[in-house]
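Hey, I'm writing a tutorial for new members on how sequence and structure tokens pair up, and I'd like a real worked example in the thread rather than a made-up one. If someone can provide the structure for the chain below, I'll link this post from the tutorial.
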Amino acid sequence: MIDIEEWTNPVNRSTDQTVGRIKEMAEELRAEGYRVMLYTNKDGYSRYVEGRLGHYPLWICSFTPLDDDTDWTMWQYTHRGTLKGIDRLIDLNVYRGTREQWDSLTSVRREIPAPVRLQYSGLSDVNHNDAGK
């Protein structure tokens, strides 16, 4: 899972640079045998995923209905869900696909690759202003 959050990216990095880094990370993870899924909200989808990274399964967080042309695999539609037996609010999601696709997405391989350590140079200040969240 690559969590794409607009507000945690370095302030001096362009959208193209950020997408390039996401592609590098996804390719490295796939080369190591991991499945890649992208998680983001509507803003992150519009800025980083749409038309750029659409070939990866998408888990999107949106508390309003999604556009019909958004190709999502999972949709987190609330942070305020309830479920019998759980005494706090929880995230609720819906999966769009077949049982066979779910089994393929969630199956565990016999050999789990060792953790991948990604090395990045030149990291700059990160903008932690989450006023837009």
